[in-house]
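Annotated sample (chain length 473).
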Amino acid sequence: MEQATLDTLIRIAYVLAAALFVVGLHQMNSPATARNGNRLSAVGMTIAVVATVVHIASRGTSSGFAWPIIVAGFLIGGGLGLWMARAVKMTAMPQLVSLFNAVGGGAAALVAIDEYIKLTDLGVGVPTETTVPTVLGVVIGCVTFSGSWIASGKLQGVVPSRPIVIPGGRLVTIALAAIALAGAGYLVFGVASVPILFVIIGAGLVFGVTMVLPIGGADMPVVISLLNSFTGTAAAMAGFVINNPVLIISGALVGAAGGILTKLMADAMNRSVVNIIAGGFGTGDAAAGAAVGGAGGSVREVNPDDVAIQLAYARHVIIVPGYGLAVAQAQHQVRKLADLLEARGVDVKYAIHPVAGRMPGHMNVLLAEANVPYPQLREMDEINPEFERCDVALVVGANDVTNPAARSNPASPIYGMPILDVDHAKSIVVIKRSMRPGYAGIDNELYANPRCGMLFADAKDGLASLTAAVKAV
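Output written by the structure step:
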């Protein structure tokens, strides 16, 4: 086959892959079509990879090590990906997403660095149209790489979840930004310089650390989404550097989608992205406070039999899932309880807060794993008006997203954050292991509500007890 014809077929394959990315991303708008959208995107990526391999083979290579490296990359990367997809628990998925962000950002930066070094070695000079995306890709990719490792460490507990304030941290961050900007200006308006590029790399890596460390654990879902957007942007810049259209398109899609999601999540917390990056609230692993000390009331404890009677004879029940549900891997148990209640004629819905869990869509994915019907999953704005006529609101492991202090206490760090109106329900039951506060590190005023009963148990055990008790009613 002639080279010109092969090049045309490769370009067509890239266009097809890009189209599948767009369609796949669109289908991810709805839980009902998200799985198919993921498959379409995977097919698009397969086409793009195969087309790239054909392109490399058709052009030949000057290094005998190229193909062994490519094959090794496929085997190692594919093997690790398959293993992690099967072995990683849902509770560890946010950490895994952060690691993927780190790998994506780092890979994009390496592509740009490699191409820049090649051009400088040739001695032909580096054109501005290559230097600009190289600098942007390196800076954004390095910030994403180091920042994502810190975010993953915070979620895993390896790095303290509380905001870690570095002495003079803001000055350090400003200085790093100034170094990166000065280096970028030198490369763009001066001459090609690999040492200056490595200075920019160092500034970007340290900037990622100083940016994420002061952010509290409660803001991690937004940070993960922001870093995901950075990963896509860095990949798009790498695409411009090597003139690869499918990398530009896919990177731009990820960057735009991540940016939109970040804005939506920040709005859901009634905070700006700038405010979050400047240093958020959240102690994450702080010691539990006094028993609802800020609520000015006592806690009423209930047992499974009492709750079972309420659930069995209710007409409307709203289940509010949270991180505790994910930790206990209780999604299948909550589905069993919901099925049992529905068999008794109870209307069951799930209230999903945008930042419940530790990453965007955490609760949606968790419940989808248990095959909970998609129509039962209701977003915050849609479900909040229904709490007024709800007979029982069953809160399973959710904390900050149900705290009335967000509406009533101007001194609270979560004041102004939209929450689920659980306190408007006729009866409230909270399944929780202890009175330990959530990631925001503050007591939940909901627990002192006279209509609220606390069922102290692991989410999985508590739901199993409720299921057995409802069957006995």
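Annotation: Residues 93-122 form the longest helix (30 residues).
Annotation: Confidence is low (pLDDT under 50) at residues 280-295.
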